[in-house]
Structures are given as structure tokens and as C-alpha cells.
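step 3/5: co-fold with 3-isopropylmalic acid
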Amino acid sequence: MKTHSIAVIAGDGIGPEVTREAMKVLDTAGQVFGFKTQRSVLPYGTEHYLKTKEILPDAAFEELGGHDAIFLGAIGDPRVPVGLIEYGIIARMRFGLDLYVNLRPIKLFDESLCPLKDKTPADIDMVIVRENTEDAYSGAHGFTHKGLRTEVATQTMVYTREGVERVIRYAFELARTRPRKQLTLIDKANAVRAQDLWTRTFADLAAQYPDIKTDHAYIDAACMWMVKNPEWFDVAVTTNLFGDIITDLGAMVQGGMGIAASGNLHPGRVSLFEPIHGSAPKYAGKNVACPVAAIMAVAMMLDYLGHKDAAAAVEGVIAELLRSKRLKGVGTGVHPTNEVGDLVVAHLREAALAR
Ligand code: IPM
Ligand code: MG
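step 4/5: write C-alpha cells
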């Protein structure tokens, strides 16, 4: 029986609760589909930092690289300086492990979840491929004359030909696996002229993928289309910052932050899976957070680890529970957190018996 080693960082706020439910589902998937996971549970996050002043020690970071995958619950806490833990843990893993693709599927499972009028599951089924190592996130920033009237603050958007090309290539390959075979480039090259590198790289690669229908939208228009005509999107590729923003919009279109999951990937290497939502400190420990996003992140992780059947089964159970209204939604407080995990586990077992 195959054993996968998984590092688990439950993190801050609601992270531990949703991670607990996600791990229940992972264990059940293993029992049903015949694999095991060996998990190293790592304590990093704000609580650990406040106690020890340790964010993500080098030795722990080195060890992460030796796992098959990493699962992260949520990070962020108002008790510590803005960005400290985010950069110290999430960004460190994204950059340090070179997880250059942030894969964010947006799929509507039931019409009732969608805030847009008259949109059905047939209209909303897309994947945003967010570049994950460059752009305004690359860390190149500074302040001069700090605190004075003359203060200047800068942050540089960094794009490299290699960084842009590899993520666009990934998106073309992904588009090839989907029935519509369509790829949209989302940028703001009319104002951020450095993004002309994206325009040119996209055009160069498009010539190598004549079977893929290509399209382009500026980020402001893309936000508008995402609400007005989400059915126009199949796969879309974009920069780190625009990808961050548009996937929160996408999460709402598919039902809310309680459902949206992501994979931070370096194909062929250790990759990181997490719900898109944050740590929601005000709901921490109350058993009200929706763990569906974390469970969907487990489905993405299973897919990545090669358990396509298990991944499809988990997604299928979530879809069915939402369609049948056994799960009445993915909002905070709609169901107790632990009951959602238990329900998914029970249905996963049932689905397996029916096979
Ligand atoms: C996300 C988050 C992070 C990001 C934060 C926590 C730094 O919003 O994964 O979308 O901006 O990438
Ligand atoms: Mg975000």
C-alpha cells in the first residue's frame, strides 16, 4: 500500500478546526481507496511565534522539502505585525520551494450558492492559474525618509521571462486537458507596461498551442466579466497580485470563501495545498467555520498525489451534498464545523460501497 508523507501546518484562527475536518476526510479517502498518509504535524503559526519567537525555523523548512505534500490550514493574526507570519510561512514556502503555480479552480456546484442572478453550474467552471513567485510579492520594496513628510515608499513588480513563461506554459497545458480548450491572459499591460513581457510571452507560446483558443482581458474588465459573464472563462492565467484579487471574487461567485481551495504547485515536486480563506480570528474555536474549502484542498492534494479516483470521489460527495441540500451552504455558522467533516466522511464511505 502506498504511503504519502504529508506535512500539516494547521496555523492560526480557524485553521486548526478546518484542518481537523480535512484530515478526517483524508483518512477516510485512504481507507476507501487504499493508501496511507504519514503526517508530520508542525506547530508553526502565530501562537507558536508568540510563545517562542520562532516563525519557521530553517531546519523545519528544510524538512518540508522532504515530504510529498504540505497541507496548510490558515495563517494570520492581528496580534502580530501585518505580514510577519504571512511572509514568514506562506510566502517562504511559495518562494523557497519555488511553487510557481497557484492553481485556483472556481466551480459552482449548485445554483443556490451563487450570488449572481440566473447563473447555473453550467456557467461557472473555470480555473485561475495565478503566478506565485514574482510580481509585487517578490519582496523588493522600501521606504526612504520614513516618517517624514518627504517619505517615499516603493514596491517593485518583478517579472522574469523564465517565471512568466513557465506559468503560462502550465496554463496552456492545463487548457489542453479541458473540453473547451480555452485560455485567457489577464493583465494590465496598458497601464503596467512591464507586463508587456506577459503579452509577448503569451503570444510566443500561443504559437506552440494552435489547438488552444486564446483570449485576453485587462484585470479591471476581467472582474467585470467574471460577474457579468462568468461563462466566458475556462482557464485564465494572470500575475500574482491580480490572481490574488480575482480569486477572492471567484470564490464568492462559486459560493463563498467556505468552498474555495488552492494548490501551490511545482509540478513534480513537493507542493502545498490550502483553502483560499484566511484565519478569521473572530470565529476561531467556535466550531462555526465551514471546512469545505479545506476538504476541497484535500481533494486537490489527492489529485496531485495521483489518486484521481479519490479526488473525484471527495469532490463528488461535496457536490452531491450541496445539490441535495444535505449541506445547506458553505457560510460561517450554517453547520457546526465538525458535523460537516462527519457528513462528508459518511458519504464517502457510502459512495465507496456503491462502487
Ligand atoms: C492568498 C492570501 C495570501 C496572498 C496572503 C495571506 C499573503 O491572500 O493566498 O490569497 O496574498 O497570497
Ligand atoms: Mg488572497
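step 5/5: annotate
The mean pLDDT is 97.
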